[in-house]
Design goal:
The complex is a heterodimer. Chain A is built from 5 helices and 5 strands; from the N terminus they run ββαβββαααα. Chain A is α+β, with helices and mostly antiparallel strands. In chain A, helix 2 crosses helix 5. Chain A is globular and about 45 Å long. Chain A starts with a strand and ends in a 10-residue tail after the last helix. Helices cover 33% and strands 25% of the residues of chain B. The relative contact order of chain B is 0.12. The chains are: A alpha+beta, B alpha+beta. At the A-B interface, strand 4 and helix 3 of A face strand 1, helix 2 and helix 6 of B. The complex binds flavin-adenine dinucleotide and FE2/S2 (inorganic) cluster (2 copies). The site of one FE2/S2 (inorganic) cluster has 12 residues of chain A, from loops.
């Protein structure tokens, strides 16, 4: 009973593995689903770098066991690109130099993606509050906020998200 | 770090979950995992069995029942925060939830998990205390209803036996003639409270206070209802002088400790300042008719 059969769809691809019950979703996504964009910083829910969409809803992948989300549809930062070209939100981060080392970036982008899908015309204060659970040790946040603001202006994320 | 190995159980019915708790002395309940999994990742907790409540039928619901709003223990915090029933009947809860971690932790964290975890710096126990919550607890063969004053025992300790499950909580509805306020001091948005205050005031047609609840978090091991502040408001019009005096009276009802976030003196000062703000918010909402 210490191992469990876990099935998920990760960025549209089915993944099925027998894993220990203690395997974190973050480790499952990296090791079993090959989604190396899921960065693991703190493993205590504080830094936000491991944030992914579970059935369309943002969650810390380090604060769930893979078995808990058996059957879920997962989207990671890799799932935003199509045919190797950047998503408009990713492009906005690029254009605004909203990253330096890039460690926080996948979590920032997934968080911003979900936020923009729910709030298409946010104020700067709302953007800052939405990103307050994601730590960046490099940029000082200014350019990240500008990138998200610009992405909102360009309508980079449709209301309700992409289907 | 990674959690120690455990066996995972995902019962579908409440009776099954209770039977598992009865049969497995080393079992722990798993709700949203937003407090338990960090503790397991650091091996501060090493349960041998986890009983996941997520797939148990009937534990995630929000219902208006008479003068109360009843919420199933497994209802995710984000679902409560965005519920029209809660926004309409219990807006204090919505205001407080916005301070509970971040959206990405509230999508998994549950109402019941936060109350059962009972962190002394957490917001929901304070709201439960201010709104005279009724905590519904299921045990082997019996269900009982517990009041907050009895439920919250000590930091991270509640009146739940190892074989019991918190199944629901109901809050008094915020009716007409009732104003509410919620204020919190912390270092970073989404952090635990250094001090937080929930205030609920009811007034009669002549503007006199007929009911007052002032509950504080972060200033003791459990939520504190300030008897001094409440007595100072009851029966009086809610003018600035009364509110200042009520906020000052809080100092006599708390005995905060010092830690790396704040000294006892600072907490005592801030408890008064944030009580004042919560009372002013509550009065303002009443005057505006929300
Ligand atoms: C970065 C971060 C910031 C946070 N900030 C805050 C904050 O500011 N304020 C705040 O209040 N919280 C905060 N939290 C914690 C909050 O997110 C948790 O959701 C909450 O404390 C626990 O709820 P849970 O559903 O995740 O429970 P779990 O973590 O699954 O369980 C917590 C404990 O309660 C027990 N339990 C759970 N459900 C039941 C039940 N129905 N019956 C009996 N026992 C039960 C479990 O066995 C366990 O011991 C934060 C968490 C993180 C990761
Ligand atoms: S690694 Fe998950 S929040 Fe930091
Ligand atoms: S770019 Fe380095 S942590 Fe954000």
């Amino acid at each position: 009973m210490d191992t469990c059969l876990v099935r998920m769809r990760v960025n549209g691809r089915p993944v099925e593995r027998e894993v220990p019950a203690r395997k974190l979703l973050s480790d499952f996504l990296r090791e079993d689903a090959g989604a190396l964009g899921v960065n693991v910083g703190c493993e205590q829910g504080v830094c936000g770098s491991c944030t992914v969409l579970v059935d369309g809803v943002p969650a810390r992948a380090c604060l769930a066991f893979a078995v808990q989300v058996d059957g879920a549809e997962i989207r990671t930062v890799e799932g935003l690109t199509t045919d190797g070209s950047l998503h408009p939100l990713q492009q906005a981060f690029h254009d605004h130099h909203a990253l330096q080392c890039g460690f926080c970036t996948p979590g920032m982008i997934i968080t911003a993606y979900d936020f923009l899908a729910r709030h298409p015309r946010p104020s700067i204060a709302e953007i800052r509050e939405a990103l307050s659970g994601n730590l960046c040790r490099c940029t000082g946040y200014q350019q990240i906020v500008e990138a998200v603001q610009d992405a909102a202006r360009l309508g980079a994320v449709p209301e309700g998200g992409e289907r | 770090m990674k959690p120690a190995p455990f066996a995972y159980h995902a019962p579908r019915r409440l009776e099954e979950a209770l039977a598992l708790l009865g049969a497995l002395p080393e079992a722990k309940l798993l709700a949203g995992g937003q407090s338990l999994i960090p503790m397991m990742n650091f091996r501060l907790a090493r349960p041998q069995h986890l009983v996941d409540l997520a797939r148990v039928d009937g534990l995630a619901s929000i219902r208006a029942v008479g003068e109360r709003i009843e919420i199933g223990a497994m209802t995710r915090q984000a679902a409560v925060e965005t519920s029209a029933v809660v926004r309409d009947g219990c807006p204090l809860l919505v205001d407080a939830l916005r301070h509970v971690g971040h959206y990405a932790s509230r999508t998994r964290g549950t109402i019941g998990g936060s109350l059962a975890h009972a962190d002394p710096a957490s917001e929901l126990p304070v709201v439960a205390s201010a709104l005279d919550a009724e905590l519904v607890v299921a045990g082997p063969g019996v269900t009982r209803v517990v009041a907050p004053a009895e439920f919250f025992r000590a930091p991270l300790t509640v009146a739940l036996d190892r074989r019991e499950i918190l199944t629901a909580v109901s809050f008094a509805r915020i009716g007409p003639r009732v104003g509410w306020g919620f204020t919190e001091l912390n270092r970073r948005h989404g952090g635990f409270a250094i001090v937080c205050v929930a205030a609920v005031l009811e007034v009669d047609g002549a503007g006199r206070c007929t009911k007052a609840a002032v509950a504080l978090g972060g200033v003791a091991g459990v939520p504190v209802r300030s008897a001094g502040a409440e007595a100072g408001l009851l029966g009086h019009p809610l003018d600035d002088r009364r509110i200042d005096a009520a906020a000052a009276a809080v100092a006599g009802d708390i005995d905060p400790g010092s830690d790396l976030h704040a000294s006892a003196e600072y907490r005592r000062e801030m408890a008064q300042a944030f009580t004042r703000r919560a009372l002013v918010q509550a009065r303002g909402r009443f005057q505006e008719g929300r």
